[in-house]
Structure to design on (495 residues):
């Protein structure tokens, strides 16, 4: 007769980059139920945003998460610009794409490394993170810091990228691409990696929609939706095709991120080549007034900001819905039926960012 | 191509506590994907904005109710809403009943956090709903 046991997975676990607890109910080695518990890194960002000036909130929201910091600031600034009827200069829109896609690229490198580490593939983890260092150096050269680059501002961007640095970005991308050409085939073709990921953590297309999945979790189950198709920043001019896999398992989600890494390299190259001359910022006039809903695509999926302003210097409401917050219910749906040993891989396959989730 | 990344909140259907579950069920059956619930605290009422997406198009349901109103959970027909309903319950003090996984006010907040930090307006005496954990 099967015995039921409750095991806490997390909040501290070697594969978890940030604290989240899953209370796993097991029958022998098989998971029958998973209940998520969060709240370990809640910082009250939405409350703080109501206390601060709307211009100060740019610095607040870019600290929600270190991995996709720029894209948080981008979403917020776009919302304020909409409320203030501000048109961002073309050069700034392309620079926003360059920095956003470099963030996506470094985020996917980070995740690929952690994913390899989750099944003990230490050398592959180190290869991906070594490659990521090239991108972090680009951030430092173009923006002055590696992680929170603080280049997005209301009305455009704070810094321009010189012609010299643009050439360097293209050179570094050639290096990054060459290294990805050796590391990604290892990730996708290694028999051990496939044994741990193919058929593991299956989420059907129907479930992905019903569970409100976002990003690679959604696209890995065959749903062709990517918020960049909305055409914000310069994505409308550059064009975007969502990267889709249909298998719906951890391997498919991994493959989506691998292909998106190449897509990001291509987007940055095209943005650099098409970068127009001109101003990088306009000074908005007045104060924000009204309500707006803004959507952008973070590395983990669709990020939504709802802003409500009343014409004063402080916002009435800032609501942040991050992609990992949306991907926790699909995780709860994926885990029942899997083996205990698969839980770390399935959990990592949604690319959890708990700082984003809890704000 | 038009920039649809930031848009005003339009295509809003008004619902009540009596009709919200049915309205959500209809959207889910149509194949829409749940996005989020945004809670606004007004002087004498809550406003809950339920946001769904079909492809890239957003659709919203708006529920406005006095503070003391008990609101049914939509998590029975839309499972992913359970997290954000817990958040609305503990941060805003919205009395949501029947959440499929109810954290009793401790999804994000600790025991010493104090009640409903996102409430902007004081509640009249006798109308504030106690935290689920302390409710008899």
């Amino acid at each position: 007769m099967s015995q039921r046991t409750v095991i806490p997975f997390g909040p501290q676990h070697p594969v978890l980059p940030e604290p989240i607890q899953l209370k796993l109910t097991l029958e022998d080695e098989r998971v029958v139920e998973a209940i998520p518990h969060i709240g370990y890194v809640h910082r009250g960002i939405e409350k703080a945003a109501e206390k601060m000036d709307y211009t100060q909130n740019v610095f607040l929201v870019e600290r929600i998460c270190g991995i996709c910091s720029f894209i948080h600031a981008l979403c917020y600034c776009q919302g304020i610009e909409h409320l203030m009827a501000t048109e961002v200069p073309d050069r700034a829109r392309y620079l926003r794409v360059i920095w956003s896609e470099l963030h996506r690229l470094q985020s996917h490198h980070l995740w690929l490394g952690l994913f390899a580490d989750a099944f003990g593939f230490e050398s592959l983890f180190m290869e991906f993170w070594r490659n990521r260092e090239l991108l972090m150096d680009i951030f430092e050269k173009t923006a002055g810091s590696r992680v929170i680059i603080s280049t997005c501002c209301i009305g455009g961007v704070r810094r321009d990228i010189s012609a010299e640095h643009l050439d360097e970005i293209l050179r570094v991308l050639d290096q990054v691409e060459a290294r990805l050409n050796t590391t990604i085939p290892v990730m996708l073709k290694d028999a051990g990696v496939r044994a741990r990921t193919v058929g593991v953590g299956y989420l059907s297309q129907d479930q992905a929609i019903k569970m409100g999945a976002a990003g690679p979790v959604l696209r890995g189950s065959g749903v062709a939706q990517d918020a960049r198709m909305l055409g914000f920043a310069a994505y409308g001019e550059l064009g975007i095709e969502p990267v889709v896999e249909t298998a719906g398992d951890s391997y498919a989600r991994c493959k989506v991120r691998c292909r998106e890494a190449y897509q990001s390299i291509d987007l940055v190259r095209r943005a650099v080549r098409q970068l127009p001359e001109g101003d990088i910022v306009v000074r908005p006039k007045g104060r924000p007034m009204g309500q707006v809903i803004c959507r952008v695509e973070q590395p983990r999926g669709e990020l939504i900001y709802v802003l409500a302003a009343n014409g004063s210097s402080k916002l009435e409401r800032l609501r942040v819905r991050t992609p990992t917050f949306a991907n926790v219910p699909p995780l709860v749906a994926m885990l029942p039926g899997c083996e205990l040993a698969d839980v770390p891989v399935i959990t990592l396959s949604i690319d959890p960012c708990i700082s984003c989730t809890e704000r | 191509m038009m920039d649809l990344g930031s848009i005003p909140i339009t295509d809003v259907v008004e619902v009540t506590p009596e009709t919200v579950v049915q309205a959500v069920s209809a959207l889910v059956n149509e194949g829409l994907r749940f996005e989020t619930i945004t809670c606004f605290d007004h002087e004498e009422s809550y406003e809950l904005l339920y946001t769904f997406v079909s492809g890239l198009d957003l659709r919203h349901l708006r529920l406005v109710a006095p503070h003391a109103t008990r609101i049914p959970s939509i998590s029975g027909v839309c499972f992913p809403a359970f997290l954000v309903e817990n958040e609305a319950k503990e941060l805003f003090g919205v009395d949501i009943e029947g959440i499929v996984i109810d954290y009793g006010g401790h999804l994000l907040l600790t025991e010493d956090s104090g009640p409903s930090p996102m409430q902007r307006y004081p509640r009249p005496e006798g109308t504030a709903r106690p935290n689920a954990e302390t409710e008899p």
Q: What stands out?
A: Residues 90-118 of chain A form the longest helix (29 residues). Chain A touches chain B through 50 residues (CB under 8 Å).
